[in-house]
Each structure stands twice: as C-alpha cells, then as structure tokens.
Specification:
By secondary structure, the chain is an all-alpha fold. The protein contains 9 helices and no strands. Helix 5 (135-143) crosses helix 7 (162-174).
C-alpha cells in the first residue's frame, strides 16, 4: 500500500519535470533568435567636438575692467550699491557691519581696515597687506567672491552682469576724498602702430650710404656720390 503511494508520487514528480523540460525546449525552439549572417547598418551618432556645433559653447572671454569702466555710470552704480548696504557702509569713518566699511576701498590694502575681523582666506590672499583692492581685483571678486578667493566668508554670490558690476565699481571709486585714476585700456590695435615702422625705415638711408649733398653744393673731394633719389612724379626743373 505504501509502495503504491510512493510510486504515484514519484510518477507525478517525473511527469512534472518532463512537462517543464518540454516547455523549455519548445520555447527555445519558437523564440530562439540567431545572429544574422550579414550584419545590418550600424547607426553611430557622431560625437560633437568641443566648442563645435552641437557642443558646449566656449566661455566668452572676460572683458577687461578698463573697457567696462569706460562706459560705466557711477549714478547707476549708486543704485546697485543699495544692495550692498545690508552688509557694508560707504560713508567716511562709517562703522563696520557684517562686512567692512568701503570708504576709499579702491587701492586700499586688502584685509587691513581697522576693527574688522577678516577670514583667514582673505588674509592669505592679501599677503600681509601687500595686495591692494585694484580695479582688476574688485572686478574679479565681485564677479564671484568664493570663486576668486576660496574660503572667503563673504556671502554675496556675485554679479555676473558686466555693466552692473562696472557701474558699482565706478561708484565705489567716488567714495574717496581723492578718487583714484581710472585704468587705461590697452591699445586694441597694436599692429596699426607698427604699420608706420616700415615707412619710417624706408625714409632712413641705408647703412653705409653717403647722405645726399644739399642743393647747390658740390660733394666733398673724394666723397662717393650719393645715390640718386627716386624720380618724382613731375620732372623737377634743371638747375
């Protein structure tokens, strides 16, 4: 009796295994995908070159502060400075707030204003007060304080607008009894100045050539005659 029940269970188990294996074999036969004898076309997207079409545009070159200040307006800058007044004062002998007083800030030695506790990062940047708040330093710092001086405690995120930043610096310049001179822009067309050099060189006589004798005078005895001058456009009258 027990042997008969065992045989039934064994047959049921074997039958189940047979069905599962058969289903697997049949599914492989129906859904098996073979590699094609000849591969089709491979679509490859061309990778864009850096700075080329479809790629990220190269960052624009920074405009020199001298160029920006040439068209800056201190009156507009005064309006921009109102944002700074939450942390700074601008009047003469004004108190320090979250940030130092900004009177006479242009060309002031960095991190030296009395009574203000500067961060270690800006003290290191100042090199013991050797570095000054030049127009260039102010421009870069106001663009991105934490990007220009790593570790600075200044919470201002920066002003990426060239015109606003230049207006603000132009106003900061006025906060002084003796405003510092504006920076001069570098010559934009250096080759233009060099263009006159060949003409100047052509006007000079070649080395070793004797100078032409003045009109009406005879050359000194034994002196080599001067090279004839190029013929003018209209013939000169004979002497």
């Amino acid at each position: 009796m027990e042997s008969s029940a065992f045989n039934k269970y064994a047959m049921a188990f074997l039958a189940t295994v047979f069905v599962v294996m058969s289903a697997g074999i049949l599914s492989d036969a129906f859904f098996d995908s073979h590699a094609p004898e000849k591969p089709g076309y491979i679509i490859q997207a061309a990778e864009p070159e850096a700075g080329g079409a479809g790629g990220e545009a190269a960052p624009a070159a920074a405009v020199p502060i001298a160029t920006l200040l040439a068209s800056a307006d201190a009156t507009r800058g005064e309006a921009v400075f109102k944002r700074c007044q939450a942390c700074h004062t601008g009047e003469k002998d004004g108190p320090n707030k979250v940030g130092p007083n900004l009177w006479d800030i242009v060309d002031r030695p960095i991190a030296t204003h009395p009574g203000f506790g500067y961060s270690g990062a800006i003290k290191d940047f100042s090199k013991g007060g050797q570095e000054k708040w030049t127009y260039d330093h102010l421009n870069h710092f106001l663009t991105s304080p934490k990007g220009y001086i790593k570790g600075t405690a200044m919470g201002f995120a920066g002003d990426k607008k060239d015109n606003e930043r230049a207006d603000l610096i132009a106003y900061l310049r006025t906060l002084s009894d003796s405003p510092k001179p504006l920076p001069t822009a570098d010559a934009a067309a250096a080759p233009a100045g060099d263009a006159a050099k060949p003409a100047d060189a052509a006007a000079k006589p070649a080395e070793g050539a004797a100078p032409a004798a003045p009109a009406g005078e005879k050359p000194a005895d034994g002196a080599a005659p001067a090279a004839p001058a190029p013929a003018p456009a209209a013939p000169a009258p004979a002497n």
